[in-house]
């Protein structure tokens, strides 16, 4: 049940979709991040999803930054 | 052990080492940078039990709820600021988030920036003190039913119950009365293509939904004030214990 100002046809239209890029949620130094896969072990940061505002100030976790992460111990979101 | 297994193990060790390296590298950066106020942003659609198509910007409750628990449990965190810019979304998820915020024992302040529409309204009023930016809007409208309707009386009953839950939450957590809220909800003169009311900044305060007009500065000031007020209580409790 939705209570929103957006018309349902806008929310649920799935036109021109080309499969979602593979995103995973990980934690680096206690900073929860959503990263997106580029190649086997190369990812870039999509979003910081922490509630700690200080986490957003760290340069190495800015969205778009590249991270190397072996596909081990990860969970798909 | 076969050669293949050995190779596999070596690979695992390498990736473990890399993971450790990543974890170790950044630690120096983090010391002493923890904030005593945590902030949650509620943006776009509030996502419910169904993942919405990727072009929707969504707030997922499975991200928010563990964070809210962590905020409640972590002793270093003294207050919570919730920023809202949402178009509404799933009723259950929205009410779940609102209930969580309203039952947190630490001081909470919400700030509506941009928009806090539909199910964003209960979330906006769920805190100890709420703010709205001068230019921000809140759209209050009736709940709509989409899709197949099998039994009209049953569907009507169902939708009415949902609306009641929302109205009850808003009226118990803000100064607006149930009648006034429903009047805003079914207003026919405010919107051209729908029924309901669009409240801009000050109007939301006048109607008693939001406590005050203000921005980030005021919101943080209020949060610090609430934290200071709660502190002696906590100290007293500890003495009693």
TrEMBL record, chain A:
Taxonomically, what lineage is the organism? Bacteria, Bacillati, Bacillota, Bacilli, Bacillales
What organism is listed for this UniProt entry? Pullulanibacillus camelliae
* The name this protein goes by in its record: Uncharacterized protein
TrEMBL record, chain B:
Q: Which SUPFAM superfamilies match?
A: ClpP/crotonase
- Domain of life from the UniProt record: Bacteria
Q: Which InterPro entries does the UniProt entry name for this protein?
A: ClpP/crotonase-like_dom_sf, ClpP/TepA
- Gene3D superfamilies hit by this protein: 2-enoyl-CoA Hydratase, Chain A, domain 1
Write down what this protein is called.
Translocation-enhancing protein TepA
**What organism is the protein native to?**
Pullulanibacillus camelliae
Ranked from the top, the taxonomy reads: Bacteria, Bacillati, Bacillota, Bacilli, Bacillales
